[in-house]
Design brief:
Radius of gyration: 23 Å
Strand content: 15-25%
Oligomer: single chain
Structural class: alpha/beta
Number of helices: 19
Number of strands: 25
Length: 559
């Protein structure tokens, strides 16, 4: 009987190299690395500036079908593909987001890849890592404290406390903090008002850090954050409160990308972590652009399905950073496709080619959508032991009809060896230079029309609906000079629609907009659809119940 080891057991057995050796592999001098122990380091901003004029490598995006509880393994495939490219002799590195503690203790239990396609040190990356998220939390909450403090000491800016839109944040799932009343307890504690918490990864500071290109750009963007309105409805920005300097000080180390390694000792940047269902869902521009200077191929991922992460990667990150992706890999699993075809989770281990074929409509739509951005596509079939040959062949045949090659990938069980065929194909796609990347909407298009374009072209909705107050807010943002901003859609990740239970590839649905938010520092407009929450809650049985220390004092339960 084969014993299947857990992710954390595999990670703990890894023969990690000193991080300085990993840096040397990339040509980074030791003096330009700031070590956090023996296996983690930050790359200095001076070094990043020094390589800015070097030629770029090829950028590969890994995205996925619409996620289900059956799992897709996007991060695992990203790590595996990076290892696979190195194994076939191509100099490659990966660029990922940092995991959030909220999902780690909630549903996921960890987010550093899986099996023999992981980044390490796994426990550190999943928990406090280099403290970036703590710095973001502190900087965000410093601004909140300065707002309330300003009102308390006379309110020179004439802030309307009913129109303060800057919440507090914490890196934990805690539904009880979504809506709160603060400053209770008498005059010495300030003026009572309604407030609330978001999760740190939903903070605009997180988005700003991931889109900034330098400390100066970071401070500029922080200054642009709109935190409130005055009583005569004028914007109050972070710079009006003299907050950007101190906030930048808190973030100066967090801006430096983090260097770690895969199980196969290949280099990886892990930096930033905005959610893709409520933010733009990509790792930092600084990490990605630096990686492109250091490797011939950079494999990165964008959160959740291609309708969210990939769309935002193309329309926000690539547009803003001037990135030109060379190829895209869409990850699918037999299990998830059967679930999209109507199979219950308990029955996924049974062969069901007919349900799989029905669920392939979801993959087909993602393929059609990504093609609209002008980027070549390959499909990775992330293999589970319960998958049958008939099911895998059905996916390959379907992809061939869409003029896309699909590959059975066994990197979870075999590491780079199990993904070498996909790696060779992706390298060939990128080497051909056939990509003609283009965002799906123009910068000059009106904000409302940008939303309708995403809804119709990507979600295949019949229409977008919103109350008059929301429509008026679109016009107000345009009048204030924000009309050129891209759109960051906040909606459920589980469906093309705003109904998480509507699987497959739904048509004839409508996208209801609940509210819109200005992210003036991140330089995009957040459009909140359906019932999406910016502070998640824990599930009935959270992963936290399984995480603890074993009798050797080692962390157990991360997976």
């Amino acid at each position: 009987m084969t014993i299947i080891k857990s992710d954390i057991e595999i990670a703990r057995e890894a023969k990690m190299k000193p991080i300085m050796e990993i840096g040397k592999k990339l040509g980074i001098p030791e003096k330009e690395l700031v070590p956090y122990g023996h296996t983690k380091a930050k790359v200095s901003l001076d070094y990043i500036d020094s390589v800015a004029k070097k030629k770029d490598g090829k950028l590969i995006l890994v995205t996925a079908i619409s996620p289900t509880p059956a799992g897709e393994g996007k991060t695992t495939t990203t790590v595996g593909l990076g290892d696979g490219l190195n194994a076939i002799g191509r100099k490659a590195m990966i660029a990922l987001r940092e995991p959030s503690l909220g999902p780690c203790f909630g549903m996921k239990g960890g987010a550093a890849g899986g099996g023999y396609a992981q980044i390490v040190p796994m426990e550190d990356i999943n928990l406090h890592f280099t403290g970036d998220f703590h710095a973001i939390t502190a900087a965000h909450n410093l601004l909140t404290a300065m707002i309330d403090n300003h009102v308390y000491w006379g309110n020179e800016l004439n802030i309307d406390s009913r129109r303060i839109n800057w919440k507090r944040v914490m890196d934990m799932n805690d539904r009880a903090l979504r809506e709160i009343v603060c400053s209770l307890g008498g005059a010495s504690n300030g003026f009572p008002r309604e407030a609330g918490f978001d999760i740190t990864v939903a903070s605009e500071i997180m988005a700003i850090l991931c889109l900034s290109t330098s400390l100066a750009d970071l401070e500029r963007r922080i200054g642009q954050i709109t935190v409130a309105q005055t009583r005569d409805k004028k914007e109050v920005k972070a710079r009006d409160l003299k907050a950007p300097g101190a906030m930048t000080v808190l973030l100066k180390d967090a801006l430096m990308p983090n260097l770690v390694q895969t199980l196969e000792n290949n280099p990886a940047f892990v930096h930033g972590g905005p959610f893709a269902n409520i933010a733009h869902g990509c790792n930092s521009v600084m990490a990605t652009k630096t990686a492109l200077k250091l490797a011939d191929f950079v494999v990165t991922e964008a959160g959740f399905g291609a309708d969210l992460g990939a769309e935002k990667f193309f329309d926000i990150k690539c547009r803003k950073a001037g990135l030109e992706p060379a190829a895209t890999v869409i990850v699918a699993t037999v299990r998830a496709l059967k679930m999209h075809g109507g199979v219950a989770k308990d029955d996924l281990k049974k062969e069901n080619v007919e349900a799989l074929k029905k669920g392939l409509a979801n993959l087909g739509r993602h393929i059609e959508n990504v093609k609209k951005f002008g980027v070549p596509i390959a499909v990775a079939i992330n293999h589970f032991v319960s998958d049958t040959d008939a099911e895998v062949e059905a996916i390959k045949a379907f992809c061939k009809e869409h003029r896309v090659e699909a590959f059975k990938c066994t990197h979870w069980a075999e590491g780079s060896k199990g993904i070498s065929a996909l790696a060779r194909h992706v390298a060939e796609l990128a080497d051909k230079d056939t990509a003609q990347f283009r965002p799906i909407y123009g910068e000059e298009m009106g904000l409302w029309d940008k939303v309708k374009t995403i809804a119709r072209e990507i979600y295949r909705a019949d229409d977008v609906v919103a109350d008059k107050a929301v429509r008026d807010q679109f016009r107000a943002f345009e009048a204030q000079g924000y009309g050129k901003f891209p759109i960051c859609m906040a909606k459920t990740q589980y469906s093309f629609s705003t109904d998480p239970n509507l699987k497959g590839a739904p048509l004839n649905h409508v996208v209801p907009i609940r509210e819109i938010r200005l992210a003036a520092g991140a330089e995009f407009i957040v459009v909140v659809c359906g019932d999406i929450m910016t502070m998640p809650g824990l599930p009935k049985v959270p992963s936290a119940e399984m995480i603890g220390l074993d009798d050797k004092g080692q962390i157990a339960g991360l997976f």
